[in-house]
Design brief:
The complex is a heterodimer of chains A (about 120) and B (about 110). With about 120 residues, chain A is mainly β. Chain A is built from no helices and eleven strands. Chain A is globular. The N and C termini of chain A lie far apart (about 35 Å). Chain B has about 110 residues and is mostly beta strands. The radius of gyration of chain B is 14 Å and the shape is globular. The chains are: A mainly beta (about 120), B mainly beta (about 110).
């Protein structure tokens, strides 16, 4: 019963390259969130996706960043033309479709991908 | 805008002492307050939570309190142990079209043996 999986765990890119971060949610979970964590800061919401749909991308920069959660396969966070300011830990979280009457659908977090831009 | 503040940013306590972390939130529509523990190299993990209609909740050595009027909530860890050393995040949650969670900046807790 694997938890949320993310790969790679560490990713090093040079400025201008592309970074692709993958997230496999827990089995049975169809809701995925991406968060960014800068050093010594909390997690900042980036995007919320359901299968084949982006529900809210208000926390994601309009340029260079994109996310998808296809019908089959992991969710992908893609950063094009990376800059040093993109260096951070990127976490994804998932939850199931929700139960009637449940106030809070607990988000289960993956171990994160630590992106370093040289 | 929506904001969660958290204090202190770092906290060192002797093993066996208590640790208290305090948070405030700005959005009065928030109705659920989870606390997460993040160990080095891992993702955050939910450790306890409290609803807005409850003032206090306890789970073994961990307790949370909520003052909805003042928009304050706190995490109390008693009889601290070295394995409690981690970064702790408070968060405020509200239901919009989805489960929106705003995290505090975190408290790095060190328990000194």
């Amino acid at each position: 019963n694997a938890g949320v999986m993310q790969n790679p765990r560490h990713l090093v890119r040079r400025r201008g390259q592309e970074a692709r971060l993958r997230c496999s949610p827990m089995k049975g979970h169809s809701h995925v969130y991406w968060y960014r964590q800068l050093p010594e800061e909390g997690l900042k919401f980036m995007v919320y996706l359901q299968k084949e749909n982006i529900i809210d991308e208000s926390g994601m920069p309009k340029e260079r960043f994109s996310a998808e959660f296809p019908k089959e396969g992991p969710s992908i966070l893609r950063i094009q033309q990376v800059v040093r300011g993109d260096s951070a830990a990127y976490f994804c979280a998932s939850h199931h479709s929700g139960l009637a009457g449940v106030l809070f659908n607990e988000q289960f977090f993956g171990p994160g991908t630590r992106l370093t831009v040289l | 805008g929506e904001n969660v503040e958290q204090h202190p940013s770092t906290l060192s306590v002797q093993e066996g002492d208590s640790a208290v972390i305090k948070c405030t939130y700005s959005d009065s529509a928030s109705n659920y307050f989870p606390w997460y523990k993040q160990e080095l190299g891992k993702g955050p993990q939910l450790i306890i939570d409290i609803r807005s209609n409850v003032g206090e909740k306890k789970d073994q050595r961990i307790a949370v309190t909520l003052n909805k009027t003042a928009k304050h909530f706190s995490l109390h860890i008693t009889e601290t142990q070295p394995e409690d050393s981690a970064v702790y995040f408070c968060a405020a949650y509200k239901k919009t079209s989805y489960d929106k969670v705003i995290f505090g900046p975190g408290t790095s807790l060190s328990v000194i043996p």
